[in-house]
Amino acid sequence: MMKSKSQILDELLVLQARRGDREAFEQLVVKWHTKLVYQSQLRTHNREQSQDIVQDVWQWLIGHLYKLEDVAHFGSWIRTIVDRRSIDWLRKQKHNVELNNQSYERDRTIDTGTADGDSSTENTEQSLSQLEQAMASLPAENKLVLTLYYMESHSIEGIAQILGIPKGTVKSRLYHTREKLKKILNEQHHEKYE
């Protein structure tokens, strides 16, 4: 499989950062920070805590970047660390967070690139809003798998490695989550026209 420009850049930055290049490390932070906070937030449902978790991971990484054996796996390695730290935080906060039942709303502006008042823009925004509402009702594990697969374009194998679960579990979660989303969206559609 051919590497993307993004993967090649990661490898180069990791190699430079290992040699003490502070600017290369800062570029890794800029490139990955927002994605990692979002990933953590899918688990914790707490944006502030996710910011703290990811910041702690970056601080830890300064002294431990040498532990990464293959620089080509930086993305999955750091995602795995963030995911495990997020799960650890949840375990500590178990009495405050109900992992499977709590939903959250994420602050995100959607730039569709079309003029205000355009009906296609309104339809797109409405569809995205319905999709976000449907996703908010899903358990964190399912949202995370969907995000990694569809938004981040990770392979089944890559997701399995990041989450530390078998490939079959990833496939199963993807299938069942898609089915559940279809059902929720169909119900929303029928409610709208009844």
Automatic annotation (TrEMBL):
Domain RNA polymerase sigma factor 70 region 4 type: 130-181
Protein origin, superkingdom: Bacteria
Region ranges (Disordered): 102-127
Coiled coil (residue ranges): none
Compositionally biased residues, Polar residues: 117-127
CDD domains, sorted: Sigma70_r4
A Pfam family it matches: Sigma70_r4_2
Domain RNA polymerase sigma-70 region: 43-94
Keywords in alphabetical order: DNA-binding, Sigma factor, Transcription, Transcription regulation
Protein family according to the UniProt entry: Belongs to the sigma-70 factor family. ECF subfamily.
Protein name: RNA polymerase sigma factor
Species this protein is from: Reichenbachiella ulvae
